[in-house]
Write a structure and sequence with these properties.
single chain; 987 residues; seven-stranded mixed sheet; 25 helices; 34 strands; elongated
């Protein structure tokens, strides 16, 4: 126990001596390393009171804090302590603290290498060091002279590896370095090799060194030093060390450089101004500027880049490269990087010495810069009214430090270039304005004489092509219906393939730009950013490399474009695009003027044609009135004569003859009135059709059967050729029968006795073809083109056939057939050559029911009939006719008696007039439909109101059917034949 106590006591005494020694500092430290394992800093764990004098931290505050001041804060101390922990052996080293301006000896022990803990004993040796240096030269006056004449003094080891500063200006430019690390710390990289070679030669030859070197100060600034190094020889004849003195000559150097740069700068600017003065085109100015600047700064490349007002169109107008570099894109790549674009947009100068060392850029953005030859670059923004309009940039393929003089020179060059450009643009604008005015005057004069829109367009395209030196010019018309563009070339060049009709969807980006009303300007399809790559390739496939297209907007819609194009790249100026646009507008106005003039001429011609047509119609009206007077007088005369005969003659044969004659004349009157009514319906577009599926074979056979007696009476042969194949059509059978009868009556009238009429029916593809051919009087060639017009007749002689009619039959046929999507044609070889009429009707493929024969040939049931009409003669005639046909017939001349007769006699059918005294036919129908015993009676409106609206009104008032006066007996008999049977009254 005594031994252990004695050992512990000795340790306490040693510990006390270490911590309380007045001139020796003791520190317990721990080395802190980074993630990469490299030393970062020292942490002070414990220290004695002497440390406070060197470390600046009180003893009670030292625990666990990083060492920021004192001798152990130097990089050399960090390096040596790390070395001690690595080898595990004590080390002794000297270091210099620039903050304290003192020298120290440090003895370092590794306490715990795993925990990076070490103990350091620090001894102040500043006085010994100073005495050693001063004792090298015993001459005190020489020592004082050295200290007075030099800004700083240092010692250098014999091999140049270790530098020992003795006196340095404030702030201290460096600290003690070992292993030549002082060269890497304070000497620029580009100067190190030269300095090392110079030092090695001096060591080999044992000669003094004198010269100028550059060093970095701790603040990063670069200084020039005029230095002298003298070797101190040992007794062995070898160099013991070097004595180094130096003076800072940075200001003098800067003044020399500034003076030299100023002279060179003034010479450069004068030469540039003299060279630019005679130039008057922007391209020549910019190319010259870029070449001068590249030669002066000896840079890899220089470019001038212009931006539009939206900053979305960036074009390089000039690019000069002195060294091998990537070809530039259409735009300056740095303007596509937000980091640079925002600074340039704010008017800041961007100077980058090395993009790889620039924080804030992504790897992709760095590669973009280097891919276009911009490892280091200097970009000057040009502002107009605080808006960036252009940049002047110089670039290097390798890192480069840009001096303030270089930055100022490029800035002044950019400003002078912009001023020169504005002057040149004003001059160019004046010249172009004169040329433009001359061209536009010539264009206006050329277009003014032309009336054909095609010739106007062709002339304008040729003129703009020749004026701007383009290879191709074309006009494109856009249509709504097909979304097609019709390209019309303005020259005979065969190199352009973009002609003809094609879909606008093939060029969506171009179409979208033009639809917005914006000019489409492409300098080079290979590099343009305005349209997608696939669309640009389609333009290239059409041999179109550069183009300008001006849109024509009419009523907020793109209607046309006016374009010029080249098969080679070209930078279009604003004057070029304006001229194309104005040419397009003037051409469009000239075309519209020509179209308006043509429309006016056509309108005048149409008006003249209408006048002639009206005059002809007036003549037709006079002829029609003459014919109408003649046609109406004939049957009226016959009827009057017949009535006179009936009054005094009761001979039965003669009476039958008179009745037959009056019947024929009455039928002729009915036909004339019916034709006039049909004409009214046609002109008012009020024809009514009830279409159904019709077997045309059956309908034609029935019609021929009904009309054959008339042909036999005139001794005409009626030949027919109807195939066994049934032909079905969708039609109104009554109207089609009317058309066939009209054509057959036409052949009957104009074919002399003994003639022949041939009727044939066949199917040709999707049409039913009905042909009626006669060998009658034929048709004059002058009449044939107008044969289907109203009031036109083939026989216009004064001795026309009897019952020739009003000339409405063929017009009615044409109108009805047209409503069935068919057509009718007439053919004749001339007078005396007969005539042929052909009906074409579309067929349907469904099976249609056969049309039965006319009701006159069918067996009719006997019915009870009530007639209500205020025309007493008509009522009595119809009543007598019905009685003769075997029906029971009753009559009433007004509504009340008619209703009473209906209640008393219970008729099957009532024929009722609409316009009756006291009570209208509509009111009668209402009373009957409300009576339970009468509501099932079949009601037929028999009235002179024969329009389509009248038919609809009768049906609305619960009439079952509508018949127009004069009474059509066939229609009357058809109604009776088709009347639903009533078991109570059927006989």
């Amino acid at each position: 126990m005594d031994v252990e106590n004695a050992t512990t006591e000795r340790k306490k005494i040693c510990h006390h001596l270490l911590f309380e020694h007045p001139w020796t500092a003791f520190a317990l430290v721990r080395l802190v390393c980074g993630r990469d394992g490299l030393p970062q800093y020292l942490m002070l764990l414990d220290a004695n009171s002497t440390w406070e004098k060197y470390g600046g931290v009180k003893k009670e505050h030292v625990g666990g804090k990083p060492i920021r001041t004192g001798p152990l804060s130097t990089p050399l101390a960090l390096e040596q302590i790390a070395h001690t922990l690595q080898i595990g052996q004590p080390t002794l080293f000297e270091l210099y603290s620039s903050a304290l301006d003192r020298w120290f000896t440090v003895l370092c022990f590794a306490l715990d290498s795993a925990a990076n803990m070490a103990a350091c004993i620090i001894l102040d040796i500043a006085e010994q060091k100073t005495a050693h240096v001063l004792n090298v030269r015993p001459d005190e006056r020489y020592r004082t002279l050295i200290l007075a004449c030099s800004e700083w003094i240092a010692r250098l080891s014999s091999d140049g590896r270790i530098l020992y500063p003795i006196r340095t200006p404030w702030p201290l430019p460096f600290t003690e370095k070992t292993g030549c690390s002082w060269l890497n710390e304070i000497i620029p990289c580009q100067d190190r090799a030269t300095l090392i070679n110079t030092l090695n030669r001096a060591i080999t030859k044992k000669q003094p060194i004198k010269g100028t070197i550059r060093i970095y100060y701790p603040d990063g600034s670069l200084h020039w030093l005029h230095s002298r190094a003298v070797p101190i020889m040992a007794q062995s004849g070898e160099i013991d060390e070097w004595f180094v003195v130096a003076d800072d000559i940075t200001k003098r150097k800067q003044m020399e450089v500034a003076l030299r740069d100023s002279e060179e700068r003034l010479s450069y600017l004068l030469n540039l101004s003299d060279t630019l003065r005679p130039l008057d085109t922007p391209d020549a100015i910019l190319t010259t500027v870029c070449k001068y600047l590249a030669d002066y700064l000896k840079t890899a490349s220089v470019c001038f880049c212009e931006l539009n007002s939206d900053h979305n169109l960036i074009n390089i107008h000039a690019f000069v490269q002195r060294q091998e570099a990537p070809n530039p894109p259409e735009y300056d790549s740095i303007l596509r990087i937000p980091f640079f674009a925002s600074r340039l947009g704010a008017g800041e100068i961007v100077a980058v010495s090395d993009v790889d060392a620039l924080p804030g850029l992504s790897a992709t953005e760095k590669e973009l810069c280097k891919a276009t030859g911009r490892r280091a670059f200097l970009s000057i923004p040009i502002l107009v009214d605080t808006e960036i309009v252009a940049t002047l940039s110089v670039s290097e393929n390798t890192p480069r430090q840009w001096s303030s003089a270089e930055i100022a020179l490029v800035k002044e060059t950019a400003e002078r270039t912009w001023d020169t450009l504005e002057r040149a643009e004003i001059h160019l604008e004046v010249m172009q304005s004169r040329e433009r005015q001359t061209y536009l005057l010539q264009l206006s004069d050329a277009l003014r004489e032309l009336e054909d829109p095609h010739e106007i367009t062709k002339t304008a395209l040729l003129m703009i092509k020749e004026h701007l030196g383009a290879e191709h010019s074309l006009k494109t018309i856009y249509t709504d219906e097909t979304s097609y563009m019709m390209a019309e070339g303005g020259s005979d060049n065969t190199g352009l393939y973009l002609q003809g009709a094609y879909q606008a969807s093939e060029y969506p980006a171009c179409h979208e730009i033009l639809c917005s009303g914006e000019m489409l300007v492409i300098n080079d399809s290979l590099t343009t950013q305005r349209i997608p790559l696939d669309e640009a390739r389609r333009l290239l496939s059409c041999n179109l490399r550069a183009c300008v297209a001006a849109p024509i907007i009419h009523q907020n819609r793109l209607v046309a474009t006016f374009s010029i194009a080249l098969s080679t790249p070209r930078t279009w100026t604003s004057a070029d695009t304006k001229l194309v646009q104005e040419t397009a507008e003037r051409t469009w106005m000239a075309v519209e003027r020509a179209k308006a003039a043509a429309a006016l001429r056509a309108s005048e011609n149409h008006a003249l044609a209408l006048v002639k047509k009206l005059e002809k119609a007036d003549r037709n009206k006079d002829r029609y009135l003459s014919i109408l007077s003649h046609e109406l007088r004939n049957p009226l005369a016959a009827i009057m004569a017949g009535l006179s005969t009936l009054e005094g003659n009761h001979d039965r044969p003669q009476l039958n003859q008179v009745i037959a004659s009056m019947t024929r004349q009455a039928e002729q009157l009915c036909k004339l009135v019916n034709d006039l009514l049909e004409l009214t319906r046609i002109t008012q577009n009020r024809l009514f059709f009830k279409k159904e599926q019709v077997n045309l074979n059956t309908l034609l056979m029935n019609t021929l059967t009904d009309i054959k007696p008339e042909f036999d009476a005139k001794q005409l042969r009626l030949l027919r050729s109807i195939g066994r194949r049934h032909i079905h059509i969708e039609a109104d059978p009554v109207r089609i029968t009317q058309c066939i009868e009209n054509l057959l009556h036409n052949a009957l009238k104009f074919t002399p006795s003994g003639g022949t009429v041939r009727v044939s029916l066949r199917q040709a593809e999707n049409d039913a073809v009905l042909t009626i051919r006669d060998n009658g009087i034929g048709i004059h060639p002058d009449i044939l083109p107008e044969l289907f017009s109203p009031f036109i007749q083939a026989d216009q002689s004064l001795d026309r056939h009897d019952n020739s009619g009003l000339g409405l039959g063929l017009y009615i046929v044409k109108s009805i057939i047209a409503q069935h999507n068919g057509r009718v044609t007439a053919h004749s070889a001339g007078l005396g050559q007969g005539a042929t009429f052909i009906l074409y009707l579309p067929v349907v493929h469904q099976t249609a029911p056969d049309i039965t024969k006319s009701p006159s040939n069918a067996k009719m049931s006997q019915h009870r009939i009530l007639l209500i009409d205020d025309n007493k003669d008509l009522v009595e005639l119809l009543r007598s006719m019905f009685i003769m046909l075997g029906h029971e017939a009753y009559a009433a001349n007004e509504g009340v008696t008619g209703i009473e007769s209906a209640k008393r006699n219970h008729p099957d059918i009532i024929f009722c007039d609409i316009g009756l005294p006291g009570m209208s036919g509509y009111e009668i129908a209402q009373v009957i439909r409300q009576d339970p015993e009468l509501k099932d009676i079949y009601l037929v409106a028999l009235t002179g109101y024969a329009g389509q609206a009248d038919v609809e009104l009768a049906i609305k008032h619960q009439f079952d059917q509508h018949l127009a006066k004069p009474v059509d007996m066939i229609a009357l008999q058809r109604i009776l034949a088709e009347l639903p049977r009533n078991t109570r009254h059927d006989t």
